[in-house]
Amino acid sequence: MSTWPDSLPPFLWGAATSSHQIEGDAQNDWTRWEDAGHVARLERSGRSTGHFANPDPDLDLFSSLGWNAYRLSIEWSRIEPKPGQFSGQAMAEYRHIIEKMRENGLEPLVTLHHFTLPQWFADQGGFFGPRSASHFLSYTAYVVDHLKDLVTLWVTVNEPIIYAVMGYSFGTWPPGETHLAKAWRLTNRLVRLHQKAYRLIKRIDPKAMVGLAHHVVYFAPYQPQSPADRMLCRIIDYLFNWRFIHKVDAYQDFLGINYYTRQWISASRGLAPIAAKPGAKVTEMGWEIYPQGLHHVLGRLKSYRKPILITENGIATNIDEERQQYLITHLAAIAAVQQEGVEVRGYFHWAALDNFEWAEGFKPRFGLVEVNYDTLERTPRKSADLYRTIIELNKENSGREPIIVPSTFQ
Ligand code: FCB
User: Fold this and answer.
1) Whose CA is nearest to atom 4 of ligand 1?
2) Does residue 45 line the site of ligand 1, with CB under 6 A?
3) pLDDT tens, 33-73?
4) Residues 166, 162, 348, 121, Cα dihedral to 10°
């Protein structure tokens, strides 16, 4: 039985961003990380796309591209620049963005934590800090209270496992630590934090739909005939892909899935996956393009019997035909799994517009809309036109039948 409320569009068609990636500089740990020279080519997010200073034209543009939804995140460091001191002005700015979305027929999906922390919170040890959960919950309560009349769909935490691994095990993101055991402990803390945030949001607004955006990789054994590769693959698959979702099962109204790629597991390499086999078709991030993986992953989620939102899926490329192909093949994977009875209720392409790709800086181009970083001019790519055509094809979709996806894109 579907729990998808009638008040929401039957299928959400949109794209996603996160605050720091499109807004740039703030008093957060990432700005400090950039200042310390940890980003490729020593880039800094700076003003990024200029979106925060002038959001209205972007929101008009997004709705003119045919979307009925848009995923964004709130920058905690703007809302709570000092512990316990909330900025009414920053809150009003985000409220304005969401009111403008509503005027434009864009259903908001709002993320509360998308990788960045206020500097004061990071200085107290981030999510290991003594009062970290209560700080996050009071920020959550403040935001939800101020937006509950406009927002139904909430994501508490974006990609908890990626966040933990990159910041605490690989050390390529702040705080730059390299202790696998700490990354593990952090994921357990984030499980509890999500559970608490879920309960809190539902208390403030019982009709809210709350979930998280979980990164799922399609893992496969490098040598399928090797028992060691197969065994390790199963272990990594469980720990990385399913354990978190499993633990928060009772605290999710929908399953938010970020899917990008397949990776290979080889016992000879240990825990570090191999991004692609030689000769594979990869994106500018070096990620293999493998739409069948999305089909597999979504199939595994059927048993949860919850509506699924693809909260991110996209490609870094300067060749827009590749983006068009990526879009079509991944949407086709969604249609195929819907045929098998999996309830997918929305698709958010990553990204709405080009943006600051964390430690990779501005080089990877993920946007349906191109950004000229010198002039801040926006140019929708052909893939945005293709997406609009597909959305148009599906305007009668009741959410109960598979989406229609054309097989060619010329
Ligand atoms: C995801 C992140 C998102 C973006 C894409 C490319 O892991 O959630 O912010 O960087 O990757």
Assistant:
1) 357
2) no
3) 999 999 999 999 999 999 999 999 999 999 999 999 999 99
4) -70
Give 211 Cα–ligand 1 centroid separation in angstroms.
17
Pairing of strands 69-73, 153-158: unpaired
| Ligand 1 centroid – CA 366 distance (Å) | 10
Read off φ and ψ for residue 68, nearest 5 degrees: -115, 10
Please tell me the pTM assigned to this model.
0.98
Rounded CA gap, 217 and 215, in Å? Answer: 7
Asked if 35 and 368 touch (Cβ cutoff 8 Å), the reply is no
Max CA distance (Å), the chain: 59
* C-beta of 350 in contact with ligand 1 (< 6 A): yes
Of all protein residues, whose CA lies closest to atom 10 belonging to ligand 1?
A: 357
The alpha carbon of 60 and the centre of ligand 1 are apart by a number of angstroms equal to 24
To test the pocket of ligand 1, the residue of 350, 362, 368 to mutate (highest count of ligand atoms within 8 Å of its CB) is 350
Q: What is the pLDDT of residues 121-152, one digit of tens each?
A: 999 999 999 999 999 999 999 999 999 999 99
Q: pLDDT tens for residues 74-85?
A: 999 999 999 999
High-pLDDT (> 90) share of the chain, %: 97
Model confidence pLDDT, tens digit, residues 204-250? 999 999 999 999 999 999 999 999 999 999 999 999 999 999 999 99
Say yes or no: CB of residue 158 within 6 Å of ligand 1.
yes
Query: What domains does the chain contain, in order, with CATH numbers?
Result: 12-393 (3.20.20.80)
